[in-house]
Amino acid sequence: MIRDIRFLRSSPGLKDMPDFEYPEFAFIGRSNVGKSSLINMLCGRKGLAKTSGTPGKTRLINHFSVTSHGPPPGSKPHEWLLVDLPGYGFAKLSKEQREKFEGLIRGYLMKRENLACTFLLIDSRLPAQKIDLSFMNWLGDNGISFVILFTKTDKLSKNQLQSNLKSYRGSLAEHWEEIPLVIPTSAISNLGKEEILSLIQQMLSEIL
Q1: Is pTM beyond 0.85 here?
Q2: What is the CATH number of domain 2-207?
Q3: Residue 92 pLDDT exceeds 70
Q4: How many helices (H) and strands (E) does the chain have?
Q5: What is the pLDDT of residue 93?
Q6: Is the Cβ–Cβ distance between 42 and 197 less than 8 Å?
Q7: What is the DSSP letter of 54?
Q8: What are the residue boundaries of the structural domains of the chain, listed by start?
Q9: pLDDT confidence of 54, banded at 50, 70, 90?
Q10: Which of 25, 1, 8, 3 shows the shortest CA–CA distance to 119?
């Protein structure tokens, strides 16, 4: 469904970002959650977002220009921006550095007017983490729309995945009256790719 994608810019601050009015779809998660691999899977380009064994490699806001279409076949193509945000929860950064990155992330999420949706990546192998729940609550308190993407599901058996999903939804129910949409994904098997891109197309059709 993605016809073309190209890197636009890496920005250290809001004033440096591309001055386009296209809808933006941002991807964010705790450090080492598999964000770059998931973005590459969605776009069908292995080297698009840089992966690394070192958590916290993404320290700038990266914009990519995307042209996509359908379904159905022959539908009008849409132009939008994919945004690769820095991760949060850097264990090895100083307090000053963490505050800088948190300010960059939260400034973007609150002030970027053409942000259409935020995809929050969560490691499916772990129980609900305090830092993730806190970030979700912040998003909700500020009226920022988001979808949860469960990553690395290929590391779990089908029964383990279902059990973890049930447990996670239970944790969310303690804080949320309406649980956000959760989509299981895998950068290895392409699980979730069609559902995520279809959701983006649906949102674009409503916006444009």
Answers
A1: yes
A2: 3.40.50.300
A3: no
A4: 5, 7
A5: 67
A6: yes
A7: S
A8: 2-207
A9: very low
A10: 25
